[in-house]
Design brief:
The protein is mainly α and 102 residues long. The chain is 65% helix and 0% strand. The protein contains 5 helices and no strands. The chain has helices at 20-30, 34-42, 50-66, 70-83, 87-101.
């Protein structure tokens, strides 16, 4: 543990919003194709109710995190939080801040 990195498993969640066009990204993300999933989710950031947009933004944050862009993930979580409050959003934001700190 002192001279080599140690992997730590963490769980992440994404939202299913009940819209086939949006939720198609979940299958793609499950196959590890985060760029493709993100490109689809990005189409829906400004569409639908504030609750739906908030969920899409959290999914986008996850995709950015999985692609290694923590700053962009934090940006998307904050935007999600401004649209619709969920305790899970605060929890995820704190996890991202911890990751950024190292």
């Amino acid at each position: 543990d002192l001279i080599a990195p140690k992997w730590v498993e963490v769980s992440r969640y994404y939202y299913i919003v009940g819209d086939t066009a949006i939720d198609n990204s979940i299958k793609v993300a499950a196959d590890g194709k985060w760029d493709e999933a993100l490109n689809n989710w990005l189409l829906f950031e400004e569409k639908g109710s504030s609750s739906t947009r908030s969920k899409v933004l959290l999914n986008n944050a996850l995709a950015y995190e999985m692609n290694g862009d923590i700053d962009k993930a934090i940006e998307k979580v904050k935007k999600s939080q401004s649209l619709y409050y969920r305790e899970v959003t605060n929890f995820y934001l704190n996890q991202l801040y911890k990751r950024k700190k190292g």
